[in-house]
Give the backbone structure.
Amino acid sequence: IHPVGGNILSYYGLAAAMGTDRPFYGLQARGLDGQQTPSTSIEAMAADYLQEIKLIQPQGPYYLGGHSFGGFVAYEMALQLEKNGEKVALLALFDCLGPYGAKQYQLSQKLQIHVNNLAQSSVIEGLNYLRARVAGSLSKLVLPSIQEQYFELTTRLLAPKERSLAILEHYNYGLIHKYRQNICQVYGGKIILFRAKIRTVEGYFAPSGGWDGLASGGVDVYDISGDHLKMILQPEIAEILVKELNNS
């Protein structure tokens, strides 16, 4: 399932590394083209995507996965399939921080995490990391209403295609926030979580990546090299997935 930007091109390397002995389908977001109407919730998006999947594969078992935003959609799809008596053989989440991951931490803990992240980064990556942290801290000082006005102003300056992408991404972030606050159902199987080694403060201290108690089969966690964006490109993910698929 696509990440927050709606595009599935980020999975190209993973799909190629998985080999040709099994199909690999990607679901791209409605509204990415600036023409279709985006889904109004994670639940509605999951139901829509399941209809599309069943056109190709009417019955299970189903093998689902999603990066970041896509992880929440994949999780909801698994819940809906189970509710309808369908079998989910595999649920893989790629650097998707669960609802129990956001907590408060001491300054010393935060500093240690940032030092660890910078130690794993190149000079350019380190500078980008620091810039993102500063921008994130400053944004917390700005009222949400002003942030919204700033977003509307800046998107007007973009070309039409870029504008539709920015609006969809902004919209999807809102869906994540709402869904994370309302997850109450437990998935009946096991979650396979691929977690970036360079990650946020919340991600470092969240047991099972914040998915504690939301999968009756538990959570298997694999730490993958890179940050949130680059981890999906690592070949080790394909190797682990192939093993998990063979054992499912």
